[in-house]
Each structure stands twice: as C-alpha cells, then as structure tokens.
C-alpha cells in the first residue's frame, strides 16, 4: 500500500449503502473468522506490460517513424543505424483511449472488485503520452484517459452491486500525491499562492506497509466528485515549460483510490483494495530537454528516481532474484512508495508510452528495454480482507457468541434451580428411606443376633443333651408319642373287654402302631368302683424306636394319677408289656353308668431312641 487511509479523519464521508442492521447480529462462529483469514492465499501474477505508440503529431515535424506495430503483442524498431529489432509484450496499443481502457483499465477494475490491490504505472519519455493515457482530457469523453473511465465504471459497478445485494455497502476514497525533487506533496490539500507546499513524510505501519503521513483522503460518493478531485490534483502538479512538452510533467504523480466492500451479513467476506495509478515524470536524457538551473536539478532527481525504479524492476524480475531489492526500494521516494506494486501484494500493469519518430529513437529503445525488464516481475497478490472490519466483525461475532452463551447459562441456571429443588426433595425422601433401611438393618441385625444366640443355645442344648444322653443311660430319648382316648362309659360291668387301638403317629410312613390292652369295670362296693386296665402288647413299633416303648395311663383331668410302664425292648416291633393298673372311683351314690360316662381313659404310647 502506498498510503494508509485514515477513516477517522475529518474528511466528509459518503457511502453507498443498503441498510440491514439486524443482519449484523446473526450468529457466526468465531472460528469462521480465523478460517476465512487463513483462506487468504497469495496469487502469483506477472506484471502486465503494454506499449502504446503515440501517433505522429505536429511536434514531430514530419520526422520519420521508426516504431511499427507488427500485431497486437509485438512491434519492430527499425533504426537506420542498426538492424530492425522486434519486441514482444502483453499488448501493443495504437488505438484510441477507449481501447486502451478496455485492454488495461477494465481488467484492473475486475481484479479490484475481487479484492486485489491493483497498480498501473505509465512510463516513458516526456511527450510520449503518459499523462494523455492515464488522465487525458477529463472533460472530453473521447479523450478521457484510463483514470476517468475507470472512475466512471467503478461507480457504475458499485451501483449495480449495491442494487443487487441489499447487504452490501461500498465505500470509495481518493487521495493524490506527487513526488517532486524527492519531496512528497499532497496534490489535493489546499495550497497558498507563493508558498511551497508542505513536504510529507513516508512512514511504515506495524504491518510494514508504506504510507504517506498526513496525506488527505477524500471519501467520494460518485464519479463527478472524483473527476473534480482528479482535475484539481492534476492542476496542482509541478509543471514547467520545456522544449519537449509545453506542460511537461516534472513530477511523479500517484492517484490512489481505495474501495471497501462491506457486507452487513456476517457470512459474506468484506473486501478492500487499493487502486494506484502512477504517472511518472519523463524518462528522457537531460541534454535533450536543454534544461539548466532548477530544471537541471529536477531532471537529475527524475532520472535518479527512474534509475532506481529501473533497478527495482531488475531486482524483482525473476531472472535476477531480489537480493538487492531492499536497498533499491529505499534509494528513492518513488521506489519506496511503489514497493508494494513490484513483487508485493498487488496486480500490476505497466503502460510504456513511446514516440514513433527517429528523433526519439534513443529514448524509445531505452523505454522498450525498460518495459521488457518489467515483464519478468512476478507479484504475489492476495485478496484483501478488510482488517478494520474484520476486527469489528470479530467483536460482533464475539458479542453474539457471548450473548448466546449467557442466554444458555441463564436457562441452565433456571433449569438447575428447578432440578435442585426436585433433587433436594428426592434427597429428603432417600434420607427417610435410608433411615428406615438403617432401622430395618438394625432389626435384621438384632434378628440375626437372636438367631445366632438361638443357634448357640441350640448347640449348647444339643451338647447338653448329648452329654445327658451319654451320661444317663437309663433315660431314653423319646422320639415318638401317640395318645389313645377310651371312653369307659360304654364298657359293660365286670367284663374284660379287649381293646386294640391305632396309636396315631404324625408323619409316619408304614403300618401304624397298634396297642392291645384289656379293660374291666368292677361293681361298686360301698360306692367305690375300680377300672382295671391291662396293657398287653404293641404291634408295629417303628424301626427308629430302637430304645423300645413305654405306656402311661391316667384318667383325663387326673394327671397326678398317671402311671408309667418301663421301657420295653422293641422285640422286633412287638414289645410286650406287663402293666396292670386299677383306678378307684367313689361313685357317691350316683348311678354307675352316669358316673362313668363322664370319664375318659388316656393311654399314651411313647417310642424311644437308642438306650434302654
Ligand atoms: P507525457 O505525459 O508523456 O509527457 P503527454 O501525455 O503530455 O506526454 O503527451 C504529450 C502530447 O502528446 C500531448 O499534447 C498529448 O495530447 C499528445 N498525445 C500523446 N499521446 C497521444 C495519443 N495517443 N493520441 C493523441 N495525442 C496524444
Ligand atoms: Mg505527463
């Protein structure tokens, strides 16, 4: 960049805009910004070199033409002294102003709108048509040079784009400086008559981009205002009458137009570019202009800066590498200002103008050689994202992102509060359940302890029992018992009645034990009667009753009168008893039958384990 435009300056400000502020706040992730930044890649582009052959003019005084176009890209130079030489360029132009614009200006405009910096510089001998080609007659449509045509189409295209895209705002600004006698001057700043215009300084910003400090920048809305400024700047150029050109330009003039395409929507990338149009001072030999004094000094400086520019061209040409480029570019103000256009971030066009006549042969050859060198320069142009706007958009995106985060956090806080309440209730419930569980656990523990205690008790008892069994062989262990009830009321008097009764035994599989006994009721003597019971034998004593069996007798309700037999050996399942017992009753005058009907004889049979 040659100049850095100060957007915050007090200059008046116009923009082409279609407002859609709401679009600014649509969310666009931050990484998109950085991704788009990383997408900016350099594009190699060779400097496009065109030669324009000026037509014969009055000034040529019927001098012989020596430069002849061969076709659209080549020409030949037939100097009397040397053999004809042909040159090849990107374009050889002999046509009118419109054709020059279409060949150079329009492609530049297209690249500028893509976001590339573009630069056109006109090089050539004084009077060969540099200023005519670049500016021409701004007021005459036919004679307008590249710059006014460019400006016109720039705004036409801006309007078309803005109409097409409601999110788009295009801003255009203009500045114009000249380098005269190695001094940089603002061509658009107000000038006081008789006073030397202020010399400006060339600075570098933090990105090492060169700019002219305090150069005025004019924001422009339309082509008319831009033309006005172009005219004003051109009029302010240092001119002096020389033999070569009545209003010969003695300075290098640089017109710079900055275009920014800003999109209200964050999804579209903002673009900015700088268009530099450079009208160099004449490249002729000093002797030819017959200049002396001030003019001689001017010529020296001009030649020096053009020489340096030539060296810079050489240093940037692919053939020679760029080892000494740094020194060359800093050698003169001009090369410093044009540093971006050669080998830097710019797509560059060179228009070399030549006079066709033999009188100018030396300068023409020099110009053609100079231009041939420039063909080899390759720049690394890249699409310029608007840095200023990127920062702003970063902030907008960051804000949108943070707002979204905040909203999400707020929702989370509400959600979490509600969840906290629910969880706290659940926690209370769980604590209650835990308490119940804990007491259940205590009960279970207690039960288990009780169970253990019981088991221990049981074991103690079993041990005691075993001990007792082992220690007392006369006391057998009862393993079954069954009870028979006999109602004695139906027994006839003084008759021995045999009874065979089943002894009920629980859970016993096999033939049930049977007890055989007799019963006799005696006649009462002095109100006293006797019931005589004789137990005889037992059948089907279970096998496990290895300790034999015993029988006990008593009348219901008179437990104290119970009598036991001895344990009788099993006798292969039929132990024989010899138990005979008389039970005496006082009938007390009652009828014997009535009396006996109330009495029930209880007979208990018990089987024993093991020991007899
Ligand atoms: P330079 O800027 O190179 O010193 P100018 O652009 O001032 O030269 O041109 C010198 C003169 O020649 C001017 O009068 C200009 O009108 C005329 N001239 C230059 N080129 C052409 C051209 N292609 N057609 C017609 N006239 C031209
Ligand atoms: Mg000129």
Structure description:
- The chain has 12 helices and 28 strands.
- The chain has 612 residues and is an alpha+beta fold.
- The protein folds into 3 domains: 49-241 and 249-284 and 303-385, Kinesin motor domain (Kinesin, 3-Layer(aba) Sandwich), CATH 3.40.850.10; 387-437; 478-608, Sandwich (Immunoglobulin-like).
- The strands form 7 sheets. Strands 1, 3, 7, 8, 9, 10, 11, 14, 17, 18 and 19 form an 11-stranded mixed beta sheet that branches. Strands 21-28-25-26 form a 4-stranded antiparallel beta sheet, with no helix packed on it.
- Adenosine-5'-diphosphate binds next to helix 3 and strand 16.
Short key terms for the protein model shown above:
binds magnesium ion, Immunoglobulin-like, disordered N terminus, Kinesin_motor_dom_sf, 3 domains, 612 residues, four-stranded antiparallel β-sheet, Kinesin
């Amino acid at each position: 960049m040659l100049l850095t435009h100060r957007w915050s300056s007090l200059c008046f400000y116009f923009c082409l805009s279609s407002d859609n502020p709401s679009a600014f706040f649509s969310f666009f992730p931050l990484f998109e910004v950085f991704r788009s930044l990383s997408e900016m890649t350099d594009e190699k582009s060779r400097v496009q070199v065109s030669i324009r052959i000026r037509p014969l003019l009055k000034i040529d005084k019927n001098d012989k033409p020596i430069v002849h176009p061969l076709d659209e890209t080549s020409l030949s130079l037939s100097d009397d002294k040397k053999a004809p030489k042909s040159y090849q360029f990107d374009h050889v132009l002999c046509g009118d102003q419109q054709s020059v614009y279409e060949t150079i200006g329009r492609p530049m405009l297209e690249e500028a709108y893509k976001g590339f910096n573009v630069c056109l510089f006109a090089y050539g001998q004084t009077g060969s048509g540099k200023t005519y080609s670049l500016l021409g007659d701004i007021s005459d449509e036919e004679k307008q040079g590249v710059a006014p045509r460019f400006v016109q189409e720039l705004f036409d295209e801006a309007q078309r784009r803005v109409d097409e895209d409601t999110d788009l705002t295009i801003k255009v600004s203009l500045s114009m400086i000249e380098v005269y006698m190695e001094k940089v001057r603002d061509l658009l700043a107000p000038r006081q008559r008789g006073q030397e215009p202020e010399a400006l300084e060339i600075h570098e910003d933090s990105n090492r981009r060169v700019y002219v400090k305090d150069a005025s920048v004019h924001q422009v809305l339309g082509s008319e205002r831009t033309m006005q400024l172009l005219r004003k700047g051109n009029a302010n150029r240092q001119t002096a009458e020389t033999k070569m050109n009545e209003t010969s330009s003695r300075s290098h003039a640089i017109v710079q137009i900055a275009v920014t395409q800003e999109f209200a929507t964050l999804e579209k990338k903002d673009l900015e570019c700088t268009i530099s149009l450079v009208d160099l001072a004449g490249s002729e030999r000093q002797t030819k202009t017959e200049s002396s004094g001030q003019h001689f000094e001017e010529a020296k400086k001009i030649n020096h800066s053009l020489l340096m520019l030539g060296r810079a061209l050489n240093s940037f040409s692919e053939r020679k590498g760029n080892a000494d480029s740094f020194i060359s570019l800093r050698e003169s103000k001009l090369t410093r200002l044009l540093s971006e256009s050669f080998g830097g971030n710019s797509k560059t066009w060179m228009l070399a103008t030549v006079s066709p006549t033999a009188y100018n042969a030396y300068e023409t050859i020099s110009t053609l050689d100079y231009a041939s060198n420039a063909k080899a320069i390759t720049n690394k142009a890249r699409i310029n994202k608007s840095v200023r706007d990127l920062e702003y958009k970063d902030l907008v995106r960051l804000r949108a992102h943070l707002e979204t985060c905040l909203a999400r956090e707020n929702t989370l806080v509400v959600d979490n509060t509600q969840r906290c309440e629910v969880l706290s209730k659940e926690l209370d419930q769980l604590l209650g359940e835990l308490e119940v569980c804990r007491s259940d656990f205590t009960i279970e523990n207690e039960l288990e302890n009780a169970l253990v205690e019981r088991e221990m008790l049981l074991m103690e008892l079993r041990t005691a029992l075993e001990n007792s069994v082992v220690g007392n062989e006369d006391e057998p262990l009862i393993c079954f018992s069954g009870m028979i009830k006999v109602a004695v009321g139906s027994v006839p008097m003084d008759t021995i009645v045999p009874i065979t009764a089943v002894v009920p035994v629980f859970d016993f599989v096999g033939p049930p034990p049977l007890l055989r006994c007799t019963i006799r009721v005696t006649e009462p003597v002095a109100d006293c009667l006797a019931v005589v019971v004789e137990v005889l034998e037992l059948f089907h004593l279970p096998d496990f009753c290895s300790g034999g069996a015993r029988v006990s007798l008593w009348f219901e309700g008179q437990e104290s009168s119970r009598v036991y037999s001895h344990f009788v050996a099993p006798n292969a399942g039929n132990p024989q008893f010899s138990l005979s017992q008389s039970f005496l009753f006082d009938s007390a005058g009652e009828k014997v039958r009535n009396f006996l009907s109330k009495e029930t004889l209880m007979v208990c049979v018990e089987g024993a384990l093991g020991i007899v």
